[in-house]
Amino acid sequence: MRRAQILSALMLALLAFAVPPASAQQVPLQDKPFAEHRIVLQLSDGDARKQALVLSVANNLLKAYAPDKIALEVVAFGPGIDLLLSGSERRKQVESLIAQGVRFDICLNTVDTIERETGKRPEFIPAATPVQVGVGQILFLAENGYTVVRP
User: Fold this and answer.
1) Are 74 and 43 in contact (CB under 8 A)?
2) What are the two backbone dihedrals, phi and then psi, of residue 4, each rounded to the nearest 5 degrees?
3) pTM
């Protein structure tokens, strides 16, 4: 009898971790019915060269496959969100890619951390898509057929 109770408790614990909380919901997948390729670019680095590389890769993929043939998402978290801040020197490039169908996700956990540490909430490009957990969004996309690339 004791063994059955322990097994039941373990099963309940596993179920509790298997069901994601409502706050961890991810944004819906892009509506790209003709996309032949699905790519997520991870940006977790504040280095200007890495950010430029991510933008270059996104541009090259759009040229190679055409905007309607590729679903392309850039997920920025940690220092990578610098690219999506309102004062970013690459803002025009980001907005141009967004206009071509590339989605840029910004991690709200990182935004919240910056606000907690500095007392000021950083302003980000309005066209960026806020996601609660950047790495969670990458995992969600990977589980839904996206290939993860970290330039």
Assistant:
1) yes
2) -65, -40
3) 0.82
